[in-house]
Amino acid sequence: MSADNGHVLRIEQLVAGYGDTPVIRGVDVEVPAGKLVVVVGPNGAGKSTLLKAILGLVNITGGEVMLDGRPITRSPLEDLARNGVGYVPQGDAVFDSMRVRENLEMGGYLLDKALRAERLEQALELFPDLRHKLKRYVGTMSGGERRMTAVARAMMLAPRVLLLDEPTAGLSAALTKMVLTEQARMLADRGTAVLLVEQKAHAALEQADWAYVLVQGEVAMSAPGREVLEDPDMGEVFLGGGSGLLADAEPAG
Amino acid sequence: MRLFIETIGFGIFSGSLISLGAVGFTVQFAISNVLNVAYGAFITLGAYFGYWLVNDAHLNFWLTVPIVAIAIGALSVAFNRLLPRPLLRRGASFVAILIGTVWAGITLQYTIVSIVGPSTFTYALGNGKTIDLWDFVLTNTQLIIIGGTALLMLGYHGLLTRTQLGQAMRATSVNPVVARSCGIRIDRITDVAWLISGMLCGATGVVLAGTVSTFDSTLGTTFLVYMIAAAVLGGIGQPYGAMIGGLVVGLTTQLTAAYLSPAYEDVAAFVILVVMLLAWPRGLFGSAAAAGRRLVG
Ligand SMILES: Nc1ncnc2c1ncn2[C@@H]1O[C@H](COP(=O)(O)OP(=O)(O)OP(=O)(O)O)[C@@H](O)[C@H]1O
Ligand SMILES: [Mg+2]
Fold it and tell me: For residue B185, what is the nearest residue in chain A, using CA coordinates?
């Protein structure tokens, strides 16, 4: 699991949206293997739409999506899943009326029995809290537990590229930190190319190898996470001034 | 007392028929988010196909049931590929697709009428032996149908809970996008679901037509009210809800027929439907989240 095995997701001049007016207007993004790439931006900037465009879920009118140098533009989601692209959508990312174990088993739908059991064990090592909740119906669990289930489900296929849409929404500061530092960061360190969309810009940018700031469907800034964090202009993007990016910062310690 | 027990017996029989049809109806909704009103016309089609096999081809009734089931199952898959699925692909709204199925149902029903004419029909079956268990008076045909339905429902339960296919069907029904991101080819899953529901539809058509005294081309559309009432009672999209809903509707309508007037039988089913829709649209077993997501999203 070297971090340098060449898998890469590349998006070139992507134009995409729901009807005729594009929401994503000529975006370039690159996510190399073993890197945590973060997309931040205000509500409605088009972050979720960007992920959906990569997955062929919205109307693409221009540009290319490439996986390991091969075009995958407009490929059906199920084919992408079979080619190593994992996805945790924003919000509703679990099978509510199914048990945690069933959610994970569905994540490993394509695997044979032995491998599925092995991956389930690995997923539980990643999220030990879920081990005692395998029989719970996901619909009855807390927001944090549901997110964990969603990410664990996506890990079952051991994706080479993982797209996460606000996996920390609604989580406590402690859990947010856990998801970002222990999970997103760790998955990248193990070789996965992780593309993370985050509302909690500060916490995410701290972990990011690279970051894109998306504003009104265009890349307003593309730089290492730390640089975006320290850029005085970027505050404006979020709150119209001041220390917007630091809004979700926790007290030191 | 004897009337009461007899009525309960016949209510259970009638209820198992409604359950059989209602599960098929609700599966289409659960998997494709489609309220397929043409389902009633497909029941009628199954009834006439069965009539032809039994009366003209002189086929055994119990052999007719699976043959018609398979035929209507195949037609159901084709229908979904022709109408609801392409409409969904184009982003058609829930109501637009509903209207599409109303149109398809009317077209199918009038096509049937233009072929078979307006008269009534009866399957050429013997009266069957009557079995009198305590005060439950049922024919052996009715008892076999009750038992067969129970077995089919158990089998469907096993499919949903014990097989990977069934799990994938449930997953597709709750969250199609996430199901696809698990690599599940949901088009195949919906084909299987429409096959199963079409088979239940065809079986219901034959069994219904074979156990009423006479039927005509309105058979399925009239019965549709019973099935929708059962499906809504159990929480639309919930297979177990539809099973229990079917029994409740069967018992209620038969008790109404016995103690008020047979003329009110259809009215009772309609009243259940309206009361449930007004007072409790999620049904007895539908979760708020599921109903909201399906009807809105
Ligand atoms: N299903 C849809 N149909 C039409 N327009 C949509 C749809 N979903 C989103 N949009 C529009 O696309 C734009 C971008 O939405 P998107 O969900 O990508 O934003 P986002 O950056 O993810 O915001 P948030 O941070 O709130 O999740 C918005 O203007 C939104 O109104
Ligand atoms: Mg979003």
Answer: A78
CB contact under 8 A, B178 and A95: yes
Summarised one tens digit per residue, pLDDT across range B260-296 is 888 888 888 888 888 888 888 787 776 544 443 333 3
- Kindly tell me if the per-residue pLDDT of A118 is higher than 70: yes
Has residue B279 been placed in a domain?
A: yes
DSSP-H helix ranges across B117-185: 140-162, 164-174, 176-181
Residue ranges of domains in chain A: 1-84+159-244, 94-158
Average pLDDT, chain B: 89
B183 contacts chain A (CB < 8 A) = yes
A50 or B271, which is more confident = A50
Contact B176, A72 (CB under 8 A): no
Structure tokens at A97: 């009326």
Q: Which structural domain range is residue B216 located in?
A: 2-289
Please indicate, yes or no, if residue B117 is contained in any of the structural domains: yes
| pLDDT for res B240 | 87
In-domain check, residue B13? yes
pLDDT value for B135 = 67
CA distances from A176 to A96, A156, B158 (A): 22, 21, 40
Contact A77 B182 (CB under 8 A): no
Residue A89 near ligand 1, beta carbon < 6 Å: no
Q: How far is the CA of A43 from the centre of ligand 1 (A)?
A: 8
State the count of interchain CB pairs (< 8 A) between A and B: 76
Q: CA of B180: which chain A residue's CA is closest?
A: A78
Look at B139 and A195; give whichever has higher pLDDT: A195
User: What sections of B123-264 are H helices per DSSP?
Assistant: 140-162, 164-174, 176-181, 186-211, 219-233, 239-259
Distance from the Cα of A145 to chain B's closest Cα (Å) equals: 17
pLDDT, mean of residues B17-24: 96
From A96, which residue of chain B is nearest by alpha-carbon distance?
B174
Is the alpha carbon torsion for A181, A187, A190, A193 positive or negative? negative
**What is the distance between the terminal CA atoms of chain A, rounded to a whole angstrom?**
33
> Is the Cβ–Cβ distance between A203 and A222 less than 8 Å?
no
Mutate to test the interface with A, among B162, B177, B178, B186 (most CBs of A within 10 A): B178
In this prediction, residue A3 carries a pLDDT of 38
* B183·A82 Cβ contact <8 A: yes
Q: What is the pLDDT of residue B121?
A: 93
Residue B95 lies in a domain: yes
A2 pocket-lining for ligand 1 (C-beta < 6 Å): no
Kindly state if the Cβ of A49 falls inside 6 Å of ligand 1.
yes
Domain count, chain B: 1
The complex's ipTM works out to: 0.88
Decide if B46 contacts B68 (C-beta within 8 A). Answer: yes
> Looking at the predicted structure, is the pLDDT value of residue A85 above 50?
yes
Quick one: which ligand is closest to A39's CA?
1
Q: Could you tell me the fold of the domain covering A1-84+159-244?
A: Rossmann fold (3.40.50)
CATH (domain of B229): 1.10.3470
More confident residue, B132 or A164: A164
